[in-house]
Amino acid sequence: MIILTTVLFPIAASQDLQKRHISLIIENVDYKPGMEENMSREFKDLADTLCVEFSGMFSNTEVQKGRQHQEDACHVDSLRKTTAGKVEVRLTLENLNQKITETEDGLLNTILQNSKHLTEDGKALIDINKNLIPISSIHITNSPESGPQISNPLLESERLRRTVNTSPTPLVSEGSKVVTTTPKPPVTTVEIVWATNWWDVFLSRYNWGGTEEIFGPDTGSTLSRLPEVDNCLMEDPCQNGGKCVSDEVSYSCVCTEGWTGQHCDRDLDECRRNPCNGRPCTNTLGSYRCECPSGYTGTDCTHDLDECENSPCQNNGVCTNTQGSFTCECQQGWTSTTCEEDLNECLTNPCKEGSRCVNNKGSYTCECDIGWEGTNCTKDLDECENSPCQNNGVCTNTQGSFTCECQQGWTSTNCEEDLNECLTNPCKEGSRCVNNKGSYTCECDIGWEGTNCTKDLDECENSPCQNNGVCTNTQGSFTCECQQGWTSTTCEEDLNECLTNPCKEGSRCVNNKGSYTCECDIGWEGKNCAEDIDECKNQQPCANGGLCKNTDGSFECTCVPGWTGGNCTADVDECLNSPCGEGVPCFNTEGSYSCKCPPGWTGKNCTEDEDECLGDSELCSNGGICNNTAGAFKCECSSGWTGKLCDQDVDECVESPCPEGSSCVNLIGSFTCECMEGWTGQYCETDVDECLLTDCGNGGTCLNFNGSYGCDCSPGFTGTPCEDVDECQDSPCSNGAACENIHGSFVCKCDSGWEGKQCDEDVDECVQNPCSNGGVCQNVDGSYQCDCPQPWVGQDCTARMFLMGAEGQFGSSVTISCGVQRLETWNSIEVKYGNRTLYQVNPDGLFTDFTGGGVKINSSVVGSGADVSLTFQNLRCEDEGKYQCTVDGNSKNTMNLVVTKPPSGEPTRISKTEGVVDNRRTINIQCQGHPSYPYGNLKFQVKQQNEAVYRDFQFPVQVQDDLTADCSRTQTMSVDYNFGQEWDQATIRCIEEESGNFDETVIDVLPDNFCERASTVTEIFLEHPHNPKKYVQCLNQLPRAVMECDVDTCFNENEQQCGSCVKECQINLCKNKASCWIINGILSCQCPSGWSGSLCEMDEDECISSPCLHGGSCYNLPGTYMCNCTAGWQGPLCDMDVDECLMNPCANGGQCTNTIASYTCACSPGWTGKQCDTDIDECLYSPCQNGGTCVNEPGAYSCTCPSGWTGAYCEQDVDECLLNPCINGGSCTNLIGSFSCDCPQPWFGKICESGLFVDGHRGEIGSENVTAVTCSVFNYQDWKRLDIIRSDKRNRSVVRVTPNGGANSVFNKRNVQVIYTPGNAQQPAEVSLQFTRLRCRDEGVYKCVLDNGQNQDAKIIVTNPSRGKPVISKIEELYGEANIAFNCTGYPGYPDGDLQFQVKLQNETAFHDFTFYSATRENVDLGCVRKQTVNATYFMNMEWNRAKIRCKARGSEQFDETNVYLLSPEICAAVPLNKGIRHPYNKEKYITCTREAPKVRNCPNTTCFDDRSQQCLFTCDNDD
After folding, report:
1. What residues form DSSP beta bridges with 885?
2. Is residue 1475 pLDDT above 70, yes or no?
3. Which end of the chain has less neighbouring CB within 10 Å, N or C?
4. In sequence order, which residues have a C-beta less than 8 Å from that of residue 511 and are 6 or more positions away?
């Protein structure tokens, strides 16, 4: 085999325009056979795509403008299959500007910069229009324009290693090169892959487009051959860890990450593809390094640095890593960024009023007043801890005190006094009560017991009833129910039953302790001798088959014939009555008799005729029916037989029963008609319904005809049987659709937008609602269009624009992002702020950043979209606003960036300006605070005098916001409001909502008559009714002004001046230990807890505030209260949980866990319920797998597994193969829940227990009565039918047999007999075909097929011996040594006969077999006759002179032969023209020397040629 491949190198048109070759491997394209010879359409499209991509990368605008008329400057040179089954492509790029692409590295970097990068399985790839190309596979080479061309030298070591004969050209020694002359025409390199016998191929000339030489010094062509060894076996050419891959002609290097070049010897500048996402990149040997900003790390600066690893948060603060930074969640008591500053909790007044707060590092402590304790002094001191209650009294703590709940029998405050219970007469009447310390006892009357003598004493506990009597307790006593035979109160006395005569009359009664016995008469039994004994059942007294009948006290026997007596033991002599008839001998026997019957009679008494037909089932031969007669029989013969015993054959053919065209054959007992094909039946009267065994196929209907059949085929099929019609030949498909013929029809593969059987109907795609997400569809010819709503775009409105705004604090880092998803094609994405473009990116990943580095921008481009994110690392107020995201100039959405700043923490201040006091005055209130930006606000809250809590209030306000450059916000609210009398003593609060900072003021509204108690003329000052620090100027009994005392002073009306504010009472008029004070001359009582009122005289109902927790009931007491707790709670306030687990409530091994006011039981497996006392019926959840049966048990369950499964849940497959179930060499494969046996042929069945065996036959044509096909079904009882299918062009069933012996056959019975032998457990069932005479047409493959699909092939081979004598072409005279072609034709025998050559050389005495290795055989097999022609070519040299070559059929004695005479070419040199000369080796021949050439002629008969006379004579004078 010779493979020629040609690579052409065109010459560049200009020196400044370069040409480059690019070879690369396409990772996701598999090689297809024949792709090199005939590129597939999809590969041509791929190659065009690559050319477009590369041309776009390297195009030069100026050059292209001047060369628009020229052809495309990119084309595919070649492609080939790599060792990995992928496609390696070699492209040629022309017209490249030298300034742009000076070096191969420059070109490679251009490709890498303009491509999308990805990594797969550790391999660096680029994506060129969805084609994945390993970077290491890209090789760029320059194209030499002239000069010597270097071929691939064949090293001497390689040639010797491959055992190829050497040749002078182009063999070179190792290290040298083959150099040819500079070619005038374009250089043609021809690579030849040599066949094994390359020396047999003459390469001197090729008629390749003409008759000129294509190899040699004048052609510029060289010869080289493809190495057949691993090109990587030499020193590894790949550097820097590159992997060498050998292919058919060379090798390639798969480079590691960071290296490129043909030998992986050039460092790849990764920084050119921007791996650091805009950060500074430094290229290194084989790698690169990114300079990451603070907070980021990793190879590409994409990994956030986890600052929390260094534990920056102090004082146990919890660190949370964020993008580029971290936050600390401080423990209580600490604050600041890293939790290093102590928080002064005392500023918030955490301690109860009256207590003193002391700040500590990270915490605080409260110094409590007497009676209080706890962290914030809010917990009442529990006096119960000192156990004041005696005699197990239960202590309950109260606010400032405690109470004792005494145990039964004790009383007083501390439960120290005994309670005399006997005063209440607790004991039952008649009993005596005795008082004890803390209790009492009752001395009970006889028959009573219990604490209060109210419980009846159960005497039965001491078992007073004897002899198994049953005791029943009664009030104060008991009764005994005695067993039979006993009596008295306690059943100790024996009862004499015989006094009542219980025994049957005639029997004797004997009294026993607690019972009695009866001594019965003969024939009776039972307790009272009242039961008759059944002698027939127990004793069987009747002999010889007698029938026993029981009677009262006895029995009777009914004897069978032949016996008599009471017990049937006496024999009866029946012969006394002559039962056999007169004269017939009778013989008495024990219990019977016998008769000696005369011939022809039988029976007990010789009265029955003997049926001879029953005695001998084959009395009448050949199926004859035997009929009995009195004393004899008669045979009724079946058809075809006659004679007394039906043993004489009838010749039915005498009457010519078979129709014309068939022949009658008399058989033993029958005859048969050998019918014409297509007919069957006894008289050939039945048409053979071939349709029973014929399948027309492909849905065709078989039509039976007389003596034949035909097929009515479905549309798309024709013939008998029905074969497929190729409709595509008529080109039925429209609109460019491709037609594909399918079975019985055709399919048009419509282009998108067309449908219908023949693709001639426009598809209304809008019917299918292709437009997603609310898009409106409009149908057009062959397609459709979608009008998409926002934010959807794309052909089907499936691509979505997404935008994500953000909100961040001033000075923080925040990111907004946008992009598009699922959009296959797009041009650019831009981000704008107002009219200013900030960023732009295209599908190739190329981007432009217009921000000047002020914003960190990342973008990611994928095949179906992209996303862009902008990170503001130090957020400023001026960054706030709306950002537009446009896709191909289409902007539909904006991203909002909101800058926030928390409240400054500065205090909120409120102020008011009051005028003259009256009930209609207007007061101006101003509030100023510092809320957060932009959402925080100030608000007013009001609490009027009769209100307990503040409520929001909307005043008519004027609001002013002032904002600084750092987003600090100051808000001022101003109110002018007319306050009526109802506002007196109302508190107005101004609060900042987020921080809670507030300030408040109190509104004072004086009543109209306030100054009436002042004198009518003089000016007087009165104390302010609500504020002791203020006083009111009254003039003429009208208020004029409100004045205020200095700090820490209050107004004293008596002294008409400001002085002390507080005075202690000289006499304490306050109740319940309250303290008394005079404040501004007014008595004031400070009430203790539990009391209220002006003098603390009113008990406070603490229960109103529901102090009892967790549902406890509150009971008010003077100055205090008590809680009655619900289940699960205890303690003074019902705030202490009860540990129920101390009572061990969980059953069945459940683990108790105490919970708040309750408990839970963690039940052991199998139990549930509150206390684990309910069995779980696991079977309800079907735990048993794979069909297992679940059985529930207490606290558990069990699974009864089906065959093939085991385990607790039947989840484990049983590996049946461990038991070696497969027999007869079967291979076992375990399956889930079962197993299967892979049976060797011909075995099958579950365990390979059954087999289908076949026997064929090889026999000579004309052999008679040959059993040629046998199908044996072994150990398979379930077969329903067996078909024998003849493998011919009709491939139909010729025989069908069922197990009951039913058989259908298409064979003529006189030619083929179907023999069926039923089988059993030991013997196989057999179906055989017996051929009356073996014919050539009987040859072929007969497939035995069972109904379960098992099949085996049996072959009938019909042989035919060789015939006739072969004919060999005559060689005879040769003029000099030469290659001689000759042949032999004959009939060597069918089917595997061969002709053979035998040779006898000049010096040999006998013929011997000889093989001419160049000989070829041509066989024509027809009608079991083989015609064979053997063609041979051989070089005959002088060794073959006077040799004989014989041709004969192998095994035959008939042959033909030829002589071989090698004559000298100069034999006529001394002979005159047209004269003859005797043949030098055969005297019966002579040679005539003509002008043209010597001619051999034969002398007739036995003459020989005489040179002198030039005649054939009977005697020759030159016999020597």
Report:
1. 831, 893
2. yes
3. C
4. 494, 496, 497, 498
Q: List the one residue out of 1258, 1252, 1245 whose CA is nearest residue 1282.
A: 1252
Bridge-based pairing of strands 486-487 and 477-481 is unpaired
| Residue-wise pLDDT tens digits, 1024-1078 | 877 777 888 888 888 777 888 888 788 877 778 888 877 677 688 898 888 888 7
* Dihedral sign of CA atoms 1406, 1409, 1415, 1420 in order: positive
% of the chain at pLDDT higher than 70: 87
CA distances (Å), origin 1292, targets 690, 697, 1284, 1287, 1296: 10, 10, 9, 7, 11
Q: What does the alpha-carbon distance between residue 294 and residue 309 come to, in Å, rounded to a whole number?
A: 15
Determine the 3-state secondary structure of 184 from DSSP.
Answer: coil
Residue 791 CB partners (closer than 8 Å, separation 6+): 800, 801, 802, 803, 892, 893
Q: How many Cα neighbours within 13 Å face the side chain of 353? A: 0
Determine contact, residues 1352/1284, Cβ cutoff 8 Å.
no
pLDDT at 1386: 94
DSSP state of 957: E
The answer on pLDDT for 476 being more than 80 is: no
Amino acid identity, position 1044? E
* Degrees, nearest 5: CA angle 219-224-226: 145
Q: 281: part of which helix (H) or strand (E)? A: strand 281-284
3-state secondary structure at position 391: coil
Q: Long-range contacts made by residues 1230-1238, C-beta under 8 angstroms, separation at least 24? A: 1232/1186, 1233/1186, 1233/1202, 1233/1204, 1233/1205, 1234/1204, 1235/1204
- Three-state DSSP at 813 gives coil
pLDDT of 919 above 50? no
Long-range contacts at 956-964 (CB < 8 A, ≥ 24 apart): 963/877, 963/933
Mean pLDDT of all residues in the chain? 80
Q: Report the pLDDT value the prediction gives residue 1239, as an integer from 0 to 100.
A: 94
- Tens of pLDDT, residue by residue over 483-522, are 888 888 889 888 888 888 888 887 888 888 878 889 888 7
Residue 539 near residue 514, CB atoms below 8 Å: no
Residue 671, pLDDT score: 81
**In sequence order, which residues have a C-beta less than 8 Å from that of residue 462 and are 6 or more positions away?**
none
- What amino acid occupies position 1221? P
Cα separation of 927 and 974, whole Å? 6
Point out which residues pair with 928 in neighbouring strands. Answer: 909, 972
Q: C-alpha dihedral over 825, 828, 829, 834, to 10 degrees?
A: -140
User: What is the pLDDT averaged over residues 636-655?
Assistant: 82
Query: Regarding beta strands 223-225 and 189-192, do their DSSP bridges make them parallel or antiparallel, or are they unpaired?
Result: parallel
Residue 1510 predicted with pLDDT over 60:
yes
On the 0-12 / 13-18 / 19+ scale of CB atoms within 10 A, 752 is exposed
Give the DSSP H or E segment for 62.
Answer: helix 61-66
Sorted by sequence, the CB contacts under 8 Å of residue 851 that are 6+ apart come out as 838, 839, 857, 870
Distance of CA 810 to the CA centre of its chain: 50
Place of tokens 């088959």: 545
pLDDT top residue among 1248 and 786: 1248
Tell me which H or E stretch contains 613.
helix 612-615
Residues 46-101: tens digit of each pLDDT: 777 777 777 767 654 333 433 333 344 677 777 777 766 777 888 887 777 665 55
Amino acid letter at 1152? Answer: C
If one compares 389 and 227, the residue with the highest pLDDT of the two is 389
User: Two tokens at 809?
Assistant: 């604090």
Q: How far lies 635's CA from each of 190, 614, 1043, in Å?
A: 99, 13, 160
Q: What angle do CA 351, 355, 356 make, to 5 degrees?
A: 85
H-helix or E-strand spanning residue 52: helix 41-58
Query: Confidence band (pLDDT; 50, 70, 90) for 169?
Result: very low
Alpha-carbon Rg for the chain in angstroms? 63
